[in-house]
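## tool: complex_structure
## caller: assistant
## args:
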Amino acid sequence: MTDQQQADLRHDEVEAGTTTGLASPSVDATDARQNSLWSDAWKDLKRNPLFWIGGLLMLVFLAMALLPQVFARGVDPRECSLSNSQQKPSAGHWFGFDQQGCDYLANVVYGARNSLIIGVLAVLVVLLLGVVVGAIAGFYGGLTDSLLSRITDIFYALPLVLGALVVLRTGTLGRGVTAVAIALALFGWMTAMRLVRSQVIAVKSSDYVAAARAMGASNGRILVRHILPNAIAPVLVYTTITIGVLIAAEATLTFLGVGLQRPAISWGLQIEAGQSLLRTAPHLVLFPSIVLTLTVMAFIMMGDALRDALDPRQRA
Amino acid sequence: MTRPDLSQPRAAAPGTGGTVLEVDDLHVEFRTRSGVVNAVNGVSYRLAERETLAILGESGSGKSVSAQAIMGILDTPPAVITGGGIWFEGRDLLQQSEEEQRKVRGPGISMIFQDALSSLNPVYSVGYQIGEMFRAHRGMSKKDAKKRAVELMDRVRIPGAGARVNDYPHQFSGGMRQRVMIAMAIALDPRVLIADEPTTALDVTVQAQVMDLLKDLQRETGMGLILITHDLGVVNEVADNVAVMYAGRIVERGTVDDVFANPAHPYTDGLMSSVPQVEAKGGRLLPIAGQPPNLAAIPSGCPFHPRCSRRRLGAAATPGRECATDLPPLRLVVPGREAACHYSEEVLGV
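## result:
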């Protein structure tokens, strides 16, 4: 706290002590709307450069996913000529050609849609499962907690890839983008649950929760309004990082023959295919990896900015 | 002790000038792995409208636990209310469903806490938190709730309330935070306000301002005030009546003037002697010998007897009033004064 703030606080005390009688209401007419957590967070976000850089990157990738033709400069990713196989990047073909002799820029651009959908969808499911199960387990405790925690442990015991493999092999979900995303989320939500649960337990015993209870707040209101906003920050950061992990995990599933299948295009498929050619054509791994890294960075920056904005003590 | 007739309404409805809250033979224990801790062992008191009742006691005397039992904020488990009643507006809160109890908290009985910083939610502006009382209990719109929040902040004398309504708890000083807490607690005009060591975390000048504020608000609204404290000075200045607690029991009760002038229980007497006196400058303070009792193993007989300078053991005691074996009941010693000591008359010097 600065000296000026200290002085302001002292001034408050003195003024409060000297006020005689009860002051007349001095309602601020300029801003009658009640500030909420989110409106204050938005004000803070607007001033955060991390948020704008992350947001800009995200917009670029979103546009890429929506309008790949524009970014691919009109080149069809499936128009290939084996004579161009593994050609290095050039002025006409910025990212070069892949093993099949297809334009690699067009391939990477067209891969954005599937990769983003898988990453974002899977992370949303992870967030949903993690927050709901973690909050209920942490808040109610006792038998509910034991039961939910053991169920989580069962999922922990199943390796992500093995679990997803079994789910995708049974075929009930199909083999499309949604199926892969759900299969990944189904075996990747446990850490988020543990994070939320431990935070909820820590926040639950704080004085302001007891105070809210003493003021007659219901269980639902206490959990949603008082505990979750104070417990959400770590899981937000965790999930933004997880997006990259999930996009990469899709590649592993593909390698095992249960993820997306060609002719589908995704960054995971490209990285997987490029690995075996790393020594002769490193650009095949390099370009999809760069865009994947940038995507993950965009999400991490947004997550960081959001975490800071949701914590008033971090605000400038 | 005879059980009260439960069919009769005990605490009167508000506005009748009678009792607003009655705690009757309340028992609370904590069931821990290492044994049962008897935190509250049969506490009874009544609070009238406009009355300020101070509950005085050292750490672990059960004064905060009994308040938490009233507010329903005990951690259960390990805490269990094993007996007694809490009567408010003619109903025993302990016999009511959790939902019915919840509706009493806030509009009926409200509470302020010792540490206002940790009692305010760090992620919401103070205006939002005060306004939440109106939104949650009265279903007010955000705009109206904010307007009411500013009015309340003015009422608890927060300077520049209109400008500070969007500030966060960490941007306020200790005294101002406690005012915000008070604003929340009185938002719905409760009949009873419980203040659990409201000034302990504040410095002395701010303490006086906060206590003055509480007294002024009480004068305006007519609410009953339960002041839980270990600060004899605060009790002397603001309370009408005082109940002294020791080892989960009330050991002495009476008006503040009487009790402070002439204690009827050796423990109260010890407390008074341990306060620094301006006249006795240079002299030594007189502490009460020994340690507060372990609530998992409260001494037999009078819980205070191991530390009591006036105890009578064995043959020295009057039959049936042996300090180490016979538990003294809280009894009327002189009109308006109750004490739980076999030899109160002696302590009083009557």
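## assistant note: The two ends of chain A are 11 Å apart (CA to CA). The first helix of chain A runs from residue 3 to 18. Handing back to user.
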